[in-house]
Amino acid sequence: MVNINFVPDDYIQNNESRRTNLMYLILLVVVMMALGGSFITIKIRQKACASKEKLVNSRMTKMQEAIKQFDDLQVKKRSMMKTALTTAELLEPVPRSILLASLTNNLPAGVSLINLNLIQKEPKHISPNQASTISKYQAAQVEKKAAQEKLSPEQLLETHIGIEGMAPSDLQVASYIERLSNSSLLDNVALVESKEFKIDDNTFRQFKLTAMLQKNVHLTKDDIETIRNKAESSVWNF
């Protein structure tokens, strides 16, 4: 049998055209949706990057502030160290190691130190009533102290030294007192006590001295080196 198609060719072509157009439209919609999704994804990522960048910038700002504060603290620390060193120089114009070396260098043969105390005190002020009963020398000292009132309190401090030691006899003690009195570092060297002390069958003299560190003493590097070099030949090594 012969198949006869009663549908016109124009109708068939129009249906095929509609199908093709519908397919293209669907593809266009899919492409547009994909583009829209990509655009939204890019925007979300841009916002996330912007948030991260803002967070990083905030952290960088905080780090810069912390670095600046650290630098300021370092500057303050150096200033405080400088002030502390200046104060230390005022309070202790002669290093204790140098003072100990000087005391050791002046020891006569057979004399040894067993104790040393350094105390800083404010100078005693003499009232006008007491000034009338003191000697001319003491009055001159009072006037000298009055002139020193213009100095800072640190510079007015007096360094009192207590010295205890052992000696074979009072002759060595007297010799030690004489040597300390001639020292350029000490003043007002005085004997407080000297008593007999026995170790086994040997007799020694246990003595106590007091002295003051002279004010306005400024040792040069040569003076310090001389004292240290002399101390190297004694019992102490610095």
Secondary structure: number of strands: 4
Query: What is the assigned CATH homologous superfamily of the largest domain?
Result: General secretion pathway protein M, EpsM
Helix content: 55-70%
Are there runs of 5+ residues with pLDDT below 50, and where?
A: none
Biggest sheet, in brief? 4 strands, antiparallel
Q: CATH class of the largest domain, anyone?
A: Alpha Beta
Instruction: From the 3D structure, determine the CATH topology of the largest domain.
Output: Gyrase A, domain 2
Q: Approximately how much beta-strand content do the residues carry?
A: 15-25%
Strand order of the largest sheet: 1-2-4-3
Query: Total helix count?
Result: 7
Model description:
The protein has two domains: 7-91; 96-122 and 157-232, Gyrase A, domain 2 (2-Layer Sandwich). Helix content is 58%, strand content 19%. It has helices at residues 9-91, 96-105, 128-131, 136-147, 153-156, 170-181, 221-232, and strands spanning 112-121, 158-167, 186-199, 202-213. A four-stranded antiparallel beta sheet has the order 1-2-4-3, covered by helices on one side. Strand 3 and strand 4 (202-213) form a beta hairpin. The mean pLDDT is 76.
